[in-house]
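Re: the 214-residue chain
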Amino acid sequence: MKCIVTAGPTYEPLDQVRRLTNFSTGRLGTELAEFLVLGGYEVTLLRGEQSTWTQPVKARVLPFTTTANLKDQLKANANEVAAVFHAAAVSDFAFGKIWQRTRGGELTPVKAGKISSRLENVMAELVPTQKIIAELRDWFPRAFLVGWKFEADGDRDSAVADGREQIAECRTNACVVNGPAYGDGFGLLTTDVRHCSTPQELFEQFAAILPKRG
């Protein structure tokens, strides 16, 4: 039974030397991939190049870079996949236009392989990236899909509500909610909410709800 796990951050380039990325080590997804391999699953781990947790795993490991690159990797590996665990920290924004505000108040476009640090009053436009999770059901119509929802603001109830909204809008089977709003541990949302204090507990819950291997 084939599974895909995404882990670690995407990045979006500002220029040829600077990037916008997320705080993500890739550890949880990497450890999940290893757990699944030990459970007898055939696993492809898509892990961001910027991940700092790079321990070897028995899974097939493929690196990704930008949000668009991760999207391409998922689509290229969509054949006969039974489950997708989308734990990657995908950038919500990419850079749009870059300007410098002159002393007269005018905005002048800036284009360079490396934007000079000598420039003053440089402004960058942030534009939303495409939501990968919203397209997973189209790419994996019969797979068991698990999304992640990291929430920094609010409380546990609001975080769980956001997770349920993700399931409904993205047609996933489950959602893992975590972050400061949820508090310690993880909430695994399916038809109910299962609190997991540790990653190992979360992985064991996955094993319990995954479709049985054929």
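The mean pLDDT is 94.
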